Amino acid sequence: MSKVTCVRKEQLYRLFINQCISILFIYLLAEFTGSALKGVTDWTTLVLTDHRPYKLSEDDFHRVCRVPHKKGANFRDFPGVIVDSNNTVHRDRTKEVLLPSGKPLLPDYVFTFEKGKSRRMFEENRV
User: Fold this and answer.
1) What are the residue ranges of helices labelled H in 34-87?
2) pLDDT in tens, 47-90
3) Quick one: three-class SS letters along 67-110?
4) Which domain of life is it from (predicted)?
């Protein structure tokens, strides 16, 4: 076997090892981060593994369940909210929605924040 052939085989061997290491690294990374789809065939069985939700109070849980299912929905889309022509929100006293605890669906600070003109009440308060 000539020296050139040995060098070529060594280069191919290193390339093969590097590719194996890369594939192994990608597989382990997917396993570690939880993004591997281990034979999942139904989207309902997928679990978001890198997320820790906050514990909600019973009232907040009922509020979350009542969020309208549409793109871009915010507190202005809740039942019992009136949006005036000058883009100010008010509580509809004739159609007031209460939670099982007796509290209103939307707290008072939703209507008093920026004098009712905020478009995204809960997003603007985030730190």
Assistant:
1) 58-65
2) 556 667 778 888 888 888 888 888 888 888 888 888 888 878 88
3) CCCCCCCCHHHCCCEEECCCCCEEECHHHCCECCCCCECCCCHH
4) Eukaryota
Residues across the chain: 127
Q: Check residue 90 and give its pLDDT.
A: 83
Give the pair of three-digit tokens for residue 54.
Answer: 């906050």
**CA atoms of 116 and 113, how far apart (whole Å):** 6
Output the CATH code of domain 58-124: 3.90.120.10
Give the C-alpha separation, 74 to 61, whole Å: 16
Residue type present at position 58:
E
| Alpha carbon distance 24, 33 (integer Å) | 14
**Domain segments of the chain: what residues?**
3-45, 58-124
Whether the CA torsion 49, 53, 58, 60 is positive or negative: it is: negative
Cα 113 vs. chain centroid, distance in angstroms? 25
Question: Look-up: residue for tokens 């690294």?
Answer: 25
Residue 90 β-bridge partners:
82
